[in-house]
Write a sequence for this structure.
């Protein structure tokens, strides 16, 4: 069993920045993959960024150059640094991890980009 808890969401103006955190109940280095998804009202959940156990990192085209995924193994925490935020980034952001072929989800944190 894996527990994931997101934090760091909130209201930010366009062009601003936020850093989301994902606290895991075990070492994130053991995960087969870890990443971030988001779901806007009326839309399907989409992949934002992920890193696999082999070190492969992928980003959605819409966030390339603006978002950065990272982690701190000592703190069992993953991060999503979001810069140059746009209104279309508004969504609930979810942390997710895969361990032994099973996907786990956090509860989500709301990000609202508005002036």
């Amino acid at each position: 069993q894996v527990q994931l808890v997101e934090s760091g969401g909130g209201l930010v103006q366009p062009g601003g920045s936020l850093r989301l955190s994902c606290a895991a109940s075990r070492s994130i280095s053991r995960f087969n993959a870890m990443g971030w998804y988001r779901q806007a009202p009326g839309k399907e959940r989409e992949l934002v960024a992920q890193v696999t156990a082999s070190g492969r990192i992928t980003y959605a085209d819409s966030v390339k150059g603006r978002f950065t995924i990272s982690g701190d193994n000592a703190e069992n925490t993953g991060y999503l640094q979001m810069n140059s935020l746009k209104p279309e980034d508004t969504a609930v952001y979810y942390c997710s991890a895969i361990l032994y072929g099973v996907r786990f989800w956090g509860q989500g944190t709301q990000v609202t980009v508005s002036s």
Remarks:
- The mean pLDDT is 96.
